[in-house]
Every structure is written in structure tokens, then in C-alpha cells.
Amino acid sequence: MSKDERQDRNSAVTQVSAKFSELWRSIRHDGTRERPAEEQNDLIDQLRNALDRKVSHFSAIRPTWIADSFAVEGIAHESDTTLLLKLRHRDLGSLHALKTVPPASADDAALLQRLREEAQIGLALRHPCLVETSALLRLPDGRPGLLQPWLPLSLASQTIARPITLQDAVVVLRRVLEGLNAMHMQGYVHCDVTPANILLQEDGVASSRLGDFGIALEIGQKHRQRGMAFAASAGFAAPEQMQGAAANPNQDIFSVGRLALRLIATMEAHATEKLSHFARACCLDDPASRPQSAMDALQLL
């Protein structure tokens, strides 16, 4: 850096410092009167908002703001029916996920209604083994969005990347069953327990959570009552669920059995006979022969 450039930089720093001191005096005092702390904080919030808008105006990539608090950092997942956005809180810097519908489906009344119903279920469930919905927000174009914790990994992606240990498999199954027990106690059946719907932090399975309540039902309800001709994941759904039977908690138990078999197949070592027995018992075709509750399955595990 040349001498002239250093002088220009120092001059700019001096000017900014003087302007900042003047601004700070204006925030703290109204003439000779010192403003109350609440009034000062309100002015600081307004200044922060103004700076955010100015940065967005001059930035080459202008962030989209949701609820005036969350900046959209990118798209985490997109399908024909689901759009998952990665958000960052403007003040806290914390990461969040927002589940909505793709822009092309913004006028799909049935899809929007299912998203609102999913929000209703997510807002009612509070358990450390479930992905909770913090709020139902509205995007700038009017689409609804479910605000959820940011969980960047799925069990499906992890088991593909590397074998799972016996200990980790048992931790996952226990947490899934504990989350299902909380759901069943609230009167809901998940209906879609698969590795893709078990979400993780980067620190491993100890914080794994069961999420995605998009096809969850109240006990005794059928998917066609919610406008869905068919809703199930082949290979994990119970036979009676595949045939359109009313939702029953032991259908989730069947899915847990299938999940256990999938984990056993990807283990780096042989599973214990106890775990193999658990998997077979949970996914028996006859619903009456399976463990009848998540707590029964936990006892068996």
C-alpha cells in the first residue's frame, strides 16, 4: 500500500469514527435529555434494520428476508412438493430450516392445507427426540413456511457414507421409539418412519430426531380423508398401511422394525441376536403379533 493510499484510508477511518460518535450521542441523548434505555434500544433496532436494508440494496446478491428476521442462505432440498430453505437469524446468527412448497405450487390449495396441518402437528409436539416446529411463518410471496431447527444431515445420508456401529444403531432406535411414544400419546401416528426422516446434527446420532410429519395422521384417520389417495414409503410401511387402513400406532412399530433391519444391514459388525429378534418382532405382518406400543418396543429393545 502506497503512502497516499494509507493516508486516504486513515482519513476515511477518522471520518467514520467521528460520524459514529455523533450517531451514538444522538441515540443516547435528545438534546440535553438522556433517552430512557427502552427508547435507546428501539432506536438501535431501527438503525440495524436500516443498515440491513442498505446492505441488501448494494449487495450483488440481495438476501431475501422472511418475517423481517431471517435471511435466506440457500436451498437445502427441493422436490415437486417440498422446498426446504436454510435460514440465518439476522440478530442471533443462528441457523434454522424453513419448510414450504415450491413457488410453482403456491396455488395448490390441497398442498398448502397439508402444510398447515403439518404445522399444527409440529407445534403441538415438544420432545427432544422429535423435530419441533417453532412457528408458522409467511414468505414474502404469501406461501406458508414451517420454521424448524437446522439439522443438516439425515440418517439415510450417514449410513450411505459409512457403516453404523451397533451402539449407534441402538441409540437411534431408542430415540425414534421415545419420539414415537410422545406422538402416540398426543394421538398421532407418524406414518413415515424412514432413515431419510431421521435428522442429525454433525456431532452424530446422540442428537438424532424424528421429523417430517407431512403424512402423519390422527389415530383412526385415513389418508384419503386428507385428500391423499396413497401415502406410504414402500419397504417401511406396514402391509395394512399400504392397503389404506386407518392409522394405528403399531404401524409405526412395523416401520421401526424395518428401520432396524436396514441398520443391521449397514453395520460394520454383526448384530446381536437380541437386536435381530427385536427387528423381526416389530415387523411381523400380523399387527396383533407386534409390540402394541412404543414403550412395549422399548422394553423389547
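Next protein, fold it too.
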Amino acid sequence: MIWPKAVRNRIKTGGDLEIVHSYPYRSACPSTVWADLVGGATEDIFLAGYTNYFFWTQLAAFPETLRRKADAGCRIRFLLGDPAGEVTRSREVIEDVALSVSTRVQMSLEALDRMGPVAGVEARYSAPEDAASHVALSVFRFDDQAMVTPHLARLVGHDSPLLHLHRRGEGGMFDRFRDHAEELWSRGVPIPS
């Protein structure tokens, strides 16, 4: 190759191959990207953010979209933090914002409740022993694409960075984040009626 360094600087190789885009803030990601990810998923939508509330406020007709997806056979899961849990209370002190963590979780719970029972839509709380790991990392999966937010120090989710990943093969970043979220789901607890 005549210019190997120039090519390496312009073509993704190795570990960054799965990174579609990165955003310094989750709020910098256009809502159209989220809508396209939800709209394009056919098999699995797994929203494993601690509150997931922004989906209900940012995406037009989100409940109707979820119903259509579920009716077409798409599995839809919500993994939420327990609004009455110790980690939630601790995180509220850390964030110190008017729209508290428990309020944001309650917004998601109320929206799910308004949808009523929908076959194919499931929701759980993360287990108390997993809550600290859950609140620190949000994983939103749409078939073979994912959006991942590592939560920084005292910042709320929309102020933390975001990675858009697309699965390219076994054992990559996508799989590692997928496995993390699946492990949390496997130990999740039912949401009381």
C-alpha cells in the first residue's frame, strides 16, 4: 500500500468498526435517529435506561409505534430502576435537579400503564443488587444497533455521552453491552401492579 497511514486514518478498523457515531451529549443526538432506530427494529427493542422517560416525550406517537411493533411480532422490553429504591434516592441527591430520577421513572410507568396490557411488551425493575450498575450505564437496543450512554459523575442522562453502535460480528462492543443489559434483565424483578 502506498499510503498506509493515510488509509488507516480514514478507514475504521479493529474495535471502532462498530461505532456508527458518537455524541458528546445524548441530547445532541437528533430525535430522528431515535425514531429511525425504533421504526426500523423488527425483532427486538430493549430499552435498558434507568428511566427511559425521554422516549415518551421526544418521539411522536411512541405508544402507537410500540403497539404496531408488538403486533408485528417485535419483542419490546423496558428495564427500569425502582423509583422507591435506595440507588434512586442516592442518585437524586447526586443529580439535584427538579425533574427527579423517581419522577422520570414514574413518567415511564404511567405511559406504560396508559398503553394497557400489550402482548410482546414487558417491563421489569433492575434487581436492587444491580441498580448501581444499571443507573451508571444505559443500553438501548434495536435489533443489531444500540445506543449506549455511560453516565458521568453528577450529570443527568441527556448531558452524558452517547455511542451509536452497529453489530458487525461476534465479541465486539455491541455484544459486550448487549450481554450487560441481558444480565441485568435476567435478574430483574416484576413491577408491582
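About the second fold: The longest helix spans residues 101-115.
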